[in-house]
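Quick start: what a row looks like.
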Amino acid sequence: MLLHIVARGRIGRSPEAELVDRYLKRVSWPTKVSELPDTGGRMPELAPGAKLVALDETGRDLPSRELAAILGRWRDDGVREVRFLIGAADGHEDETRARADLLLAFGKATWPHMMARAMLAEQLWRASSILAGHPYHREG
């Protein structure tokens, strides 16, 4: 199952970019990152049956195990791509929120989109590790 991050804004060479790269290299599933300008740009075509996750301040604040369980169900159901959308400063349009299979938040705080990208990469690594049966430090 492809984990595809589509993010508004260019991350360039930055500490956040290094974190994203570090975590995505650890993920056992294929990953891809596509960048779009803050406004406009062409969204990559979404394949039929793909799942759409929008990072949004109104989304669900999920524990890592629950996010892993959702990704595991989608994987087991034969989903070929999960696309994660990270918006620009003004977030997502209502149409995007309505189309999403999951609205995901990283708490109630507002995060710069570059930090959100690094946090998402870490959570994708953590979810794939949990699903692979690696010991989880919060268990017990």
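That is the whole record. The beta strands are 2-8, 31-36, 51-61, 81-86, 102-105. The mean pLDDT is 90.
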